[in-house]
Design brief:
Elements: H1 6-21, H2 27-40, H3 47-65, H4 70-107, H5 125-141, H6 150-158, H7 171-174, H8 186-219, H9 226-257, H10 275-281, H11 284-295, H12 305-323, H13 327-353, H14 364-382, H15 386-398, H16 418-439, H17 444-449, H18 453-470
Helix pairs in contact: 2-6, 3-4, 3-5, 3-6, 4-5, 8-9, 8-16, 8-18, 9-14, 9-15, 11-12, 12-13, 13-14, 14-15
Amino acid sequence: MLFNSISFLVFFPLVTAVFFVIPQKCRPLFLLAASYYFYACWSAKYLLLLLASTLVTYASGLLISRTAKAARKKMWVGASFAINLSILFVFKYFGFAMNTIAGIAARLHITIQEPSFSLLLPVGISFYTFQALSYTMDVYRGDVKAEKSFVRYALFVSFFPQLVAGPIERSSHLLGQMSEEHHFDYQRVKNGLMLMLWGFFEKLVIADRAAVLADMVFNNYAVYGSTELIVAMLMFTLQIYTDFGGYSHIAIGAAQVMGFELMQNFRQPYLAENIADFWRRWHISLSSWLRDYLYIPLGGNRKGTLRKCINLMIVFLVSGLWHGAAWHYVVWGGVHGVYQLAGLLKNKLADKINAGKPRRAAGFGCRAGTFVLVAAAWVFFRANRCGEAIAFLKNILLKPNAWALVDGVTLYSMGLDRAQFWLLVLAALLLFWVDVQHEKGRHLRKELMQKGPLAVGAVLWAGVMAVLVFGIWGPLYDAAAFIYFQF
């Protein structure tokens, strides 16, 4: 079930209404049933995988809490990780691994018979697997107590607003909320609905419109010049932010309507001062997960500069592989790893040169440079293969056609006509203005909530009409899945 579907617009109000009407003791079980139904709308048979991951990590938490021997605790943690990661490997990475082995064998003139079967990638498997595994580690570290109620724990793993594309929640933050009483609060509900509306605007007005242009050029990059390629690169940079950010805002807003608080997943990432800052702002739930459960256990920055560089590169390669079972995702992660290492070495050199002097605040040039580096790396993420990404970037340099910016034709021949193109530009400028205001410390929704009911109503009406009138709809519209559903 997609957030941007008629089914969800019926499902969510109905679930919310029933949730607040039924007794408190029945709510966890009801939400669990609703969440499993939400997931079953994609594929009922893959509920078994979700249930298996839930059972394994629930049992491991209880077993870890009931033993005092450190070796036995580690054994249960290892078993939980082995089972869950094996399921993830079989359904997400087995085909990739076999293709890679077959490719290597072919270069060595060895023939390998690849398995003929193929498995459908279960939606959201990377998200709920990481969320469940973090619970196992939290219990092992003593950060949380093992949850005795299977219903509450299963709801933590499968809570429908963030089940298929995050945020990847921590047990220390969300699990306890499953046993709290949640009362209807008008201001909280209104705030949550406003956040959901902004998420729909990002997805339907910006992301899906940017996708039209980006898809056309990326799928036929060889016939375009540098101007069209740069525009397409920028459009995908915009698309992936508003697509995933839109999902996150809808998820956080939907949870807030029912009284649950989910963690922030984005914080103006394209205003970052450097690449390290970008990853403190982009997909925060994943980057913090990798920091806490991979980077720090590997040694973090405690074992010298060389080891820190190795740990950083491992983390970013894993991040790339987490996003997709293909080498271009791994390369995308590796590119960001190289960015990080370059930034680390640059800072060390600057500290030596400017010993004792305070660092100057990053200006517009640093932010613009960071944005360009991030946008260029997104080409590897969007391309179908590494070779296509390299050819795409090469053509930007080798096929200049700056006149296309002013010929009055080229910009409007990439899938969007003149009106649609400039509507997208205006929507992107609105997004940029909102991000800048948030970067300055303004809380726009909070400020709006303090206005009178007429002002709030006018803004909400304008937002709804903008989504209905300018969103990508129509009789031929096929609700576009959010990009991160495939991960």
